[in-house]
Amino acid sequence: MSKPQASRPFTAILIGGSISGLILAHMFSRAKINFILLEARDTVSPQLGAGITIQANGSRILDQMGLLGPMEHFLTPMGRQWRRKSNGEVVKCMEWPVGIAGRLGYSIGIAERQMLLQSLYEQLEDKSKILVNKKVLSFEHGEDEVKVSCEDGSVYVGNLVVGVDGVHSRTRREMQRIAEEASPGLMAGDMNKVSAEYNAIFGISAASPHLIPGESHISSDIDKSSLMFVSKHGLPQWFFFTKLDKRYYGDDIPRYTKEQMEKQVEENGDFCVTGNMNLRDLIRETTSLSYLSLEEANHEHWSWGRIVCVGDSIHKMTPNLGQGGNQAIESAATLTNTLHTLLTTTPHPTTSQLSAALKKYQDLRTQRSKLFVKLSGVVTRDDALADLRNVLRFLYVPPLEKEKFLDIQTQLYATGPYLEFLPQPERIFGNRSWGLDEQGGVLEKNGKTRARL
């Protein structure tokens, strides 16, 4: 006989061993929220051929949990950023990432995605909660619980399902299906929300002595651009972007074959990604390579009943701004804060109580996620010289005055959420850019301390 609901701990089922999934596992552990994580692959740290940047808004949250220190040996601090024409001619060189590090105490860290995933997994105290080879097929939503059925025949029961399974989220699709069955038309606006107007070849190539670790390179042409981050030992992690013939939605978004990728490289092989390396050079030395459409979305419904989505599964942005992973970390923190507050006073919430908390999570995140989806898209189109204004700005308009640009960047990072039930990291005590006094107290605008965290 199964235990009565009130005698079992509230349990969350996390779907997906992504960066946001593993970070959410750490957050739930610290918030004392029971969970299991189901990952479809046979590993939580696959080599997907992509780099990632951890920026100050994400770093602060990782630092709160003690995760950042063990990562710093593979995080490369970002330094100079070069902007070029597609023939390799330099247009601008800026060092704003160094200025941001000086203000906020965190460098923009360049990392291989696989190494970040591996570090997150290795730092988990209880790895038995992470289950691989668990491809999720369907959900059954009940009054007090949700049953999750997997391809191998296993079934898991929890009080909450959290989708951290990416833009092609099974969780989101199941949530929409169940919601539509209960309230026809409720999810109609979200069914075809994901769109794509650009695609990208992206990969990691062999390290080069000609590349300086920490530097980034952006090259631009009409409807094309490239982006490269150079990590430790001169390892290039790069993207080559092109505009599609139109904006595609949902199932009509193009999927690419190896032959199509080879044709793309053949047509654009001379595109200079740095001053002395073109796309053909990078492909020749590649160790990992992918070709995908760049999906964008910000869904209207983030949750229904006992199901909720986090990160790319609900707010997907292009990679040019480097905020996709960081925004997923922010959403994971906000969800954890909301659940921690609820479960502290109500260990076994009703569906109505839980739904209200999940709505609060979305309300707290909607404005900021929309901002970063929009900003990411603006940068993608700006880099690819999408219209005359972008061309003129690229060629003739000087960068913003340094301090003004840093003010804007600082505001974007420092206003992000954090884990409210954990202390602030000591390294930012006394940093007024974060609004903290020397003991980590939050400063009001008048300079007085409002609270100790």
UniProtKB/TrEMBL annotation:
Domain named FAD-binding: residues: 12-347
Pfam families reported in the protein's UniProt record: FAD_binding_3
Segments traversing the membrane: 12-29
Keywords: FAD, Flavoprotein, Membrane, Oxidoreductase, Transmembrane, Transmembrane helix
Claim: Signal is one of the keywords in the record: no
Keyword Transit peptide: no
GO function term, MF aspect, one: FAD binding
Family per record: Belongs to the paxM FAD-dependent monooxygenase family.
PANTHER family assigned to the protein according to its UniProt record, in alphabetical order: FAD-BINDING DOMAIN-CONTAINING PROTEIN-RELATED, FAD-DEPENDENT MONOOXYGENASE ASQG-RELATED
Name the UniProt record assigns to this protein: FAD-binding domain-containing protein
